[in-house]
Amino acid sequence: MKAARKVDNRMDRRSAPRFAFIAEAQVIEILSDTKLRAQTSDFSSGGCFLDMLNPSPMGTEIRITISHGGDKFTAIGKVIFVSPNMGMGVAFTTIESAQLQVLNKWLSALSHPG
User: Fold this and answer.
1) How many other CB atoms are there within 10 angstroms of residue 57's CB atom?
2) Which of 25, 76, 27 has its CA nearest to residue 56?
3) Distance (Å, whole) CA 21 – CA 45
4) DSSP code string of 38-100
5) Which residues contact 103 (CB under 8 A, 6 or more apart)?
6) What residues have CB less than 8 Å from 45, skipping those under 6 apart?
7) Among 86, 96, 74, 98, which residue's Cα sits nearest to residue 23?
8) Which CATH superfamily includes the segment(s) 19-111?
9) 42 has which bridge partners?
10) pLDDT band of 10, cuts 50, 70, 90
11) pLDDT tens-place string over residues 38-91
12) How far is CA 72 from CA 11, 26, 66, 89, in A?
């Protein structure tokens, strides 16, 4: 079993820089197994904002898979705020160690464009 990193979003939530980042995302609500499609609009080491017309309710635990540039990033997250008919803010709560490589690759490219 791969090691996973628990994310302390109380510390990470506002201290992590956010970047504009457009990518396709698949969301699965863990309790209901409901599958949803979305698109990211911003991204950080602690979470992302997902553009979608029918966001999940606040507090919903999700598995999110984001696809970009041939790579996929998967994490467990929690909906921490909802903008009706706009989207939802997701905080990553568990990121497996193998997924950290993808996350760090994307964040490095976003923080050093060009």
Assistant:
1) 9
2) 27
3) 12
4) EEEEEE-SSEEEEE-SSPPPTT-EEEEEEEETTEEEEEEEEEEEEETTTEEEEEEEEEEHHHH
5) 45, 73, 75, 95
6) 12, 16, 92, 103, 107
7) 74
8) predicted glycosyltransferase like domains (2.40.10.220)
9) 20, 49
10) very low
11) 999 999 999 999 999 999 999 999 999 999 999 999 999 999 999 999 999 999
12) 26, 10, 6, 19
100 backbone dihedrals φ, ψ, rounded to 5°: -60, -30
Domain residue ranges of the chain, discontinuous segments joined by +: 19-111
Question: How long a stretch of residues is the chain?
Answer: 114
Q: Global pTM? A: 0.85
Supply 98's token pair.
């193998």
Measuring CA to CA, which residue among 112, 114, 107, 113 is closest to residue 42?
107
